[in-house]
Predict the structure of Rhomboid family intramembrane serine protease.
Amino acid sequence: MVVLEEAPVQRASLESGVVAVPRWRRFFLPVTYTYAALLVAVTVLVSELSDVDQSRVVLHASTNLHNLLHGRIGTLLSSAFVIGDSNAALMIIPLLGCVLALAELRFGSRRLLRVFVAGHIGATLLVAIGLWVAVEAEWLPWSISQAEDVGISYGAMALIGAFIALLPSRWRPTWAICWVAVAVAGVVMGRTFTNVGHLLAVAIGLAAGFWWIRSGRLDALRRLSWPESGLLGTGALLGYLLLVG
């Protein structure tokens, strides 16, 4: 009988109890690639329409109060694939790709989707409830219920908040305080329901990150590599642009 010697990497992995991941798997990011491709495709298609048709598409996909009250729940999904300004999309999509890539690398595809969806839908519904109360109380005009409300910002800000779980413990309070402060500044300066949604999305992401830390589910994650630190910095740039840009 011939006994084959285990490869050093495999043997070390077995002894340590950690399964070695092939290098190519590090670049297998299905959610990131698929979502970015869909955003590009939708942006190109919308940019080919006339201004009037573009407005119709955006309003139809918007998660504004008018659509939600009329039962158009599908807008909770469609709004995440439409970026109203095609010119802004040229900058937003690459930056978002960095955020998605880092999240999928370190959290995995399922956690990435959960946080993004929680931020996007959670912040949208909370804002809608606030707007409904304000409109019913006549604090705000009914016209605000038909405002355009599409984009990736709520989901992106939730992911950026969740990145607190990737940082050393000494930097976590700084990350949380800075993003909450910038989001509050955005609310004060912008004074729109979108700014409020950004603040809520950051809070949702931070809550998810703190939950992972407290539950010990991300203990085994290694420290950020230099490329990953670059992705984190790029994500921070996107977050700043979305909040106060």
Notes: Confidence is low (pLDDT under 50) at residues 1-22.
